[in-house]
Amino acid sequence: MATPKRDDSLTSYRWEGKDKSGKIVRGELRAASPTVVRTALRRQGILATRVSKQTFSGRGKVTDKDITLFTRQMATMMKSGVPLLQSFDIVGKGASNPALSRLVASIKTDVETGSALNQAFRKFPLHFDNLYCNLVEAGEQAGILDQLLDRLATYKEKTQAIIAKIKSALFYPISVLVVAFIVTAVIMIFVVPQFKKVFTSFGADLPGPTLIVMAISDYFVEYWYIIFGAIGGGLYAFFYFWKRSEKMQIVMDRLALRLPIFGEVFRKATLARWSRTLSTMFAAGVPLVEALDSVGGAAGNHIYREATKRIKAEVSTGSSLTVAMQNAAVFPNMAIQMISIGEESGQIDAMSGKVADFYEAEVDDAVSRLSSLMEPMIMVVLGVLIGGIIIAMYLPIFKLGAVV
Known about the structure:
With 404 residues, this protein is mainly α. It is built from 15 helices and three strands.
């Protein structure tokens, strides 16, 4: 029987009905409309009682961690000899996230109707990027899908670990500064005005620091809604345009690499992702020029994305990868030398993997150092800010005590 041809215009539908024996059965089917679903089920002797469009919104969201776990589970089962469709059943039924279960069921339906696995994944670009789909396609063509899924799972686990470390490095100082701002605002709005009433009854000249704090407090009390609104609106606008404006993303990527203290961590994390992607793609048998397409996008930084485009252009014209990386002028000497050894020995995948391991360890150490460095710095900032306000408000009381 001919293999059904995949049609991207078809939609996934969930259905429920009764078979010839009256037993309630459920399932999913790709079709052009609910009417087509009912007709197809009738031919199978099933009377459909409910047909609804398959959606992935609501009742949970598929996260990158879910996709990583899904990839690891699929790789484990396929390496154990479990058939592909049965693996989908096991993963889908065992998923704690309903959205992931629905996603897996839709992919399984596509594969059942004759689609290649990589084609089924390409229908969901928000969850499966080009790198993921290209590696799955390479695994299908070479008959080593289980090995490629294992490499993909390892790649995604390593990448997520790097991202988690960067977030942990930023979370502590940002959270402390937010708390410091809230505490300062509460003091300015509720505490300082009470001191002001007491000082007004003194009828004496107040020290300069006290007058400054009281003036700031008056501004907070009168315009607190504008201050909080401006900060909230500014943050919303910033993240809104950051996600949607390519120019702003380019500016922020450049700025991230130039930040004091944090810039070096971002650079090492980018190098780790760049090297890890190159290692994964090359080990999968993807030609170097094609692999560089995915490597640039996976780096997650505009500077390295543009540098990778230049590297690809030079490699396409016959230059070695080492020379092209040197010309890009954004890669450290250690990474270039390691890749050079890999080119000479024919083990680019192994050497780029070692480069990734090195920079992942560097990021880990840098985050640990940052944590120990930021703690005293934050304590100093909080001490100067909160302590300065308290001292300014108690200066008149000390002055009055000295006079008495």
